């Protein structure tokens, strides 16, 4: 199972009705026309906040996290705020830390977390300071904007942190 923890209008999805995905958002917005004249809708399969996930532990093999990139007290009717939401400038670090903790809880022990982050308000380096996980790899996307968008992949290391060395049995021998 996959969890899209911030599905919004599912803009990055090819299959917006993927049966193996739980689409989560705290908002539910019926189709509306935004200032760019596109028809938007936020219709999650589960309505909840990503800081307090209503799932048991070790459920998902993958979590996709595309949090709001605007960190400010923006006008809530501003187009970008309506479409993507905002993070509070005073509490954003704690909010993101809670999210990572929740994702680690619902991910299977070696599950994958995919982060999409745009450097609109904070650099990727600044954002990653909120993560207890070290990124495995990532890449920036090329936009015609002055802000870089990154896709970064993490692996849940709950299993590895409980054992100082992961022992793998190969052909009857243990390797460390």
Secondary-structure topology with pairs:
Blueprint: E1 2-4, E2 21-25, E3 29-33, E4 39-42, E5 46-47, E6 60-65, H1 79-84, H2 92-106, E7 107-118, H3 124-128, E8 135-141, E9 149-155, H4 158-162, E10 168-170, E11 173-175
Parallel strand pairs: 1-2, 1-6, 2-5, 6-7
Antiparallel strand pairs: 3-4, 7-9, 8-9, 10-11
Termini separation: 30 Å
Largest sheet features:
7 strands, mixed
Query: Beta-strand percentage?
Result: 25-35%
Low-confidence stretches: 159-172
**Mean pLDDT reading:** 82
Count the helices. How many?
A: 4
The topology string of helices and strands comes to: EEEEEEHHEHEEHEE
Integer tally of domains: 1
What is the CATH third-level topology name?
Rossmann fold
Second rung of CATH, namely the architecture: 3-Layer(aba) Sandwich
Summing up helix and strand content along with how strands pair, one would put the structural category as alpha/beta
Overview of this protein structure:
The chain is α/β, with parallel strands linked by helices and 176 residues long. It has a single domain, classed as Rossmann fold (3-Layer(aba) Sandwich). Helix content is 18%, strand content 32%. It has 4 helices and 11 strands. The strands form 3 sheets. Strands 5-2-1-6-7-9-8 form a 7-stranded mixed sheet. It has a two-stranded antiparallel ribbon with strand order 3-4. A two-stranded antiparallel ribbon has the order 10-11. A hairpin with a 7-residue loop joins strand 8 and strand 9. Mean pLDDT is 82; it is low at 159-172.
């Amino acid at each position: 199972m996959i969890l899209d923890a911030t599905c919004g209008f599912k803009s990055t999805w090819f299959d917006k009705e993927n049966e193996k995905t739980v689409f989560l958002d705290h908002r539910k917005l019926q189709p509306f026309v935004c200032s760019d004249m596109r028809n938007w809708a936020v219709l999650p399969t589960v309505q909840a906040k990503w800081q307090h996930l209503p799932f048991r532990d070790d459920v998902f093999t993958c979590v996709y996290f595309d949090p709001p990139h605007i960190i400010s007290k923006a006008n809530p009717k501003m187009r970008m705020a309506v479409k993507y939401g905002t993070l509070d400038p005073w509490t954003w670090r704690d909010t993101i830390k809670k999210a990572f903790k929740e994702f680690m809880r619902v991910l299977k022990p070696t599950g994958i977390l995919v982060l999409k982050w745009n450097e609109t308000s904070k650099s990727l380096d600044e954002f990653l300071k909120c993560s207890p996980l070290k990124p495995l790899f990532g890449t920036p996307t090329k936009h015609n904007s002055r802000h870089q968008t990154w896709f970064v992949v993490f692996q849940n290391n709950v299993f590895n942190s409980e054992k100082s060395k992961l022992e793998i049995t190969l052909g009857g021998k243990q390797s460390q």
